[in-house]
Design a protein that fits this description.
Helix 5 links the parallel strand 4 (about 85-90) and strand 5. By secondary structure, the protein is an alpha/beta fold. The chain has one domain (about 1-215): Alpha-Beta Barrel (TIM Barrel). The chain is globular. The protein has helices spanning about 10-20, 30-35, 40-55, 65-80, 90-105, 115-125, 135-140, 145-160, 170-180, 190-195, 200-215, and strands spanning about 1-5, 25, 55-60, 85-90, 110-115, 130, 165, 185-190. An eight-stranded parallel beta barrel has the order 1-2-3-4-5-6-7-8, surrounded by seven helices. Bound molecules: erythose-4-phosphate.
């Protein structure tokens, strides 16, 4: 399973990369706004900075909601670097844009996916990645992980090659459950990745090993 970090913050991306486990990055317009990046030139420059930092795929989202606008934006984004993945929302023109990008050899990430039906459409359009938002589904008291399992079952049965990118991850537990449910990729805040490190018995065990070593070597 691949690990992406879900942020536009360069320090956090560098910290995740430094761990040696980073396979890529996802961003969205909210995450870009959070970094105070506004205006097309600044956005393109920021995506370039992320692509320069990371070897793996970097998702950059289009803002347009019509086919022509998405194609224009997506082409400009794809020209930033070879590792750019054009992120397109699951709407009618989005599906059409994904099909178009697929025919042009441009990688895509179909975002804002909340049902198996939407995931089937994304795969039919040839999306490189499909992003079911599990945290937002849990937020409305539905079961986000159930959706990952459902999509994984359908894609395996039908031979779809689109990778399942579990998004809207809110905790280390979400990462573990995504791995068990058949996700190909998880995109998470850095805090959730770092949360995987933690176990009280590890801390207790390490303290004991070091204490015993120090006693024997004093
Ligand atoms: C996915 O690509 C999105 O950027 C992201 O995972 C959304 O997460 P949120 O629901 O925490 O905003």
């Amino acid at each position: 399973m691949k690990f992406f970090v879900d942020t536009a913050n360069l320090e956090q991306i560098a910290e995740a990369k430094d761990l040696g486990i980073l396979d890529g990055v996802t961003t969205n317009p909210s995450l870009m706004a959070k970094e105070g990046i506004s205006g097309t030139d600044a956005q393109l420059a920021h995506y370039k900075a992320i692509c320069d930092l990371v070897d793996g795929d970097v998702s950059a989202e289009v803002i347009s909601t019509d086919f022509e606008g998405m194609v224009k934006e997506g082409i400009a984004l794809s020209e930033i670097a070879p590792n750019i993945v054009v992120k397109v929302p699951m709407i009618k023109d989005g599906v059409k844009a994904i099909s178009h990008f697929t025919s042009q050899g441009i990688k895509t990430n179909c975002t804002l996916v909340f049902s198996a039906g939407q995931a089937i459409l994304a795969a039919k359009a040839g999306a490189t990645y499909v992003s079911p938002f599990i945290g937002r589904i849990d937020d409305i008291s539905w079961d986000g992980m159930n959706l990952i399992e459902e999509i994984a079952e359908i894609y395996a049965m039908q031979g779809f090659e689109t990778e399942i990118l579990a998004a809207s991850i809110r905790s280390p537990k979400h990462i573990v459950s995504s791995a068990r449910s058949g996700a190909d990729v998880v995109t998470c805040p850095l805090s959730s990745i770092l949360g995987l490190l933690k176990h009280p018995l590890t801390d207790i065990g390490l303290a004991k090993f070091l204490a015993d070593h120090n006693k024997a070597n004093s």
